[in-house]
Design a protein that fits this description.
It contains four helices and no strands. With about 80 residues, the protein is mainly α. It has one domain. The chain is elongated.
């Protein structure tokens, strides 16, 4: 069931939101809904604010091999 809500935005934010909506060819309501779904799925409310902002920052980045990191660390000492 869909529910209509009203939001108030700073005019600069509203302008950006509308241009972003046009660039991505997605309705603003879909963008906002997806944002809230993401927040709901990644519940970081129990984390400190500065840590919550970093949540997921490394997602999709391959974790380096521990042996390779050790080799790189020790190699830099040889310079």
């Amino acid at each position: 069931m869909n529910t209509q809500i009203t939001i108030t935005l700073d005019s600069n934010v509203a302008e950006f939101a509308n241009s972003f909506s046009e660039r991505t060819n997605k309705p603003l309501s879909e963008i906002i809904e997806n944002y809230f779904i993401t927040l709901q799925n990644n519940n970081t409310s129990d984390l400190p604010q500065d840590l919550a902002e970093l949540y997921g920052i490394f997602e999709g980045i391959e974790t380096p091999n521990k042996k390779e990191l050790r080799r790189m660390f020790h190699d830099k000492d040889n310079y």
